[in-house]
Amino acid sequence: MQTKNVVAGLGEIGSPILKLISRKTTAIGYDTNKKLMNNDKFTKLENVKTSFLHVCIPFTNDFVNNIVHLSEKFHPSIIVIHSTISPGTTKRLQTLLSIPIIYSATRGVHKRMLYDLKRYTKFYAVDQAVPKATWAISEYSKLMRKCSVKTKLMTNPITLELAKIVVDTSYYGWLITYAQLSNVIAIKNKVDYDEMWSFADEIHKFLGNRPKMFPGFIGGHCVIPNLDLIKNDTLDLIKQINNDYAKILKSKK
After folding, report:
1. Taking a C-beta distance cutoff of 8 angstroms, is the pair 67, 55 a contact?
2. pLDDT tens, 23-69?
3. Contacts of 223 (CB under 8 A, 6+ apart)
4. Which of 6, 27, 112, 183 has its CA 20 to 30 A from that of 70?
5. Is the separation of the CB atoms in 222 and 84 below 8 Å?
6. What are 80-105's pLDDT values in tens digits?
């Protein structure tokens, strides 16, 4: 029997994931913005059974309700969440739905996401006490392998939810924040930032623990917005320092 994959949310993550999967299996995209969809293909395959529903929509207060509605619309056998989400979201969804919910955090730079999807191992996790969890693990790993994507299973979803925020985007932001602070000190003392940091070049070369970052303003919609998903007062300093740094940069112009 023919089945299809559905990718919900055709933005900077969903669009490349749809391209990746479409090369190896039947897949359609769905978005509230119909202009992003291939409407003829969607209509043609709408009544074909959905094997995977790939969720790539931004996290909001309505995220869980939106996924439940998408599940009711497409009736998938398995849901895979590729979005960055608040810790505990997968567990909450799993209490509402009987089908396996896989969390599979996405890594990569948006402008080359299709390349990075194959470059990085795709970590994933599911509550292994859920009925059909073992089957879902097998099916997802097979799908990714077919798409030439390496996978690694984590013990539970919350570990991966935290990993995406704590050791990826927030850690990156923390490093940039230190670069901002060190640049403020350089500016105050009228010294060259790059010359000052050259002192660490050999240390980083030999030990790998003195990374020099570019002291720019943190923009975009990953590092700063993701801080709101974890609600940690110490990590929120990244936002505060970033805002203060913007004022310093503006005053220099």
Report:
1. yes
2. 999 999 999 999 999 999 999 999 999 999 999 999 999 999 999 99
3. 169, 170, 172, 173, 176, 238
4. 112
5. yes
6. 999 999 999 999 999 999 999 999 99
- Expressed as residue numbers, the domain containing 179 is 163-252
Q: Residue 13 sits in a domain of what CATH number?
A: 3.40.50.720
> To the nearest whole number, what is the mean pLDDT of the chain?
96
Give the whole-angstrom CA distance, residue 8 versus residue 32.
9
Helix axis angle, 237-252 to 223-230, nearest 10°: 150
Pairing of strands 27-30, 3-8: parallel
Q: Are residues 184 and 242 in the same domain?
A: yes
The verdict on 179 and 124 lying in the same domain is: no
Predicted confidence (pLDDT) per residue in 157-208, tens digit: 999 999 999 999 999 999 999 999 999 999 999 999 999 999 999 999 999 9
